[in-house]
Specification:
The chain is of the alpha+beta class. Helices cover 19% and strands 34% of the residues. The protein has five helices and 20 strands. The chain has helices at residues 2-30, 42-53, 59-71, 96-103, 246-249; strands spanning 122-128, 133-138, 142-149, 152-159, 167-173, 178-183, 187-190, 201-205, 211-217, 225-232, 236-243, 253-254, 260-264, 270-274, 280-286, 291-296, 303-306, 319-320, 328-332, 337-341. The strands form five sheets. It has a six-stranded mixed β-sheet with strand order 5-6-7-8-13-12, with no helix packed on it. The protein has a four-stranded antiparallel β-sheet with strand order 1-2-3-4, with no helix packed on it. The protein starts with a helix and ends with a strand. The model is unreliable at 87-106 (pLDDT under 50).
Amino acid sequence: SLELIDFKNALEQFHNLVEKMVIQKTKESSGLYTKDDDEIDYDKFYATTRTLFGPAVKDHNIQAFFRKAMSNLDERPEWLEIFGCFIGESDGMPSPSKESMVFLVSEKQQITHSVVKRKDVIKGMVKVPLLNFIVTASQKGVLTVFSEQRKFFFRYSFYFHQDTAWITGCDFLPNLKYVVAVTENTIILWDYRPKETKYEGFVIKPMKNCLLCVCTVTMADNLPRDTILMGDDKGYVYLLTMTSDDFIMKQSRADKESQFRFFDSESFTILRRKLHDDWVGKVRYISALKRFASCSTDSTKSFVLDDIKRLEDNLPVKEFSVPKGVNAFTYCGKTKVIVTGG
């Protein structure tokens, strides 16, 4: 009990130290700060933190905490980070040889083709086991299919030109054979296969809210249709079912310089339901459970797991609350366990 009281006192002093340090840095940025004897620099922060917590904190964690706190004054790092709870420890890291033993990697192949340009990043990567290839989408619009044939990788890429919207996720439609990707205000359907026509796909726009994630609903009916789940920045989860007839029956327009045909989103029946009170970080259809799942940084409605029919009605959904929300989740069929990460 005495140790707990001492730790709480030390933690309170540490919070005061950080608060004072941030106030000082804020004043410095606005030119209102006058140096005095109470100035807190890194050396003073280090010495005070070491006095409060002793050998329980490591030098590199103190340095990382200080750098993170000073680089973003609006978002304070968690106090746990001073003990290295959110960043990797340098001690006890496995060597490359141990990693190989753990993962039993017999052969690795590096893809030397440049997938993205400078200052671009991969925002989505999906493996398609049935066709033995991988789909990637970069933030600035490079859609790529890596197909492993005869033990060599073949790459099919397409650059989707956009004004300011970034790609936020991708997946593959197994029945229609299209790559689906979402940007902040559009749905992209890319036909990656070689074709005689100049058009490489379709774009559905505009979407009312900013789309953040997308996934395909895998059904065992083998019908010529695909269903897509999407999440946005207002807490809505969308349900869109498409058939090949949609591309024939609906009116589209084709810009001269574009290789895509454009459809008005109002011409599609897109169901949506508000399930969260914050951004939807991830959506997924879990075939083994015949349920869809979505997560959010919302602390009250953090994780939803229910039948896909709940997106078509207003019946209550099975939802779980996690402090500070859920950023990621996965399902393990062997143990029948869902793991979430906040």
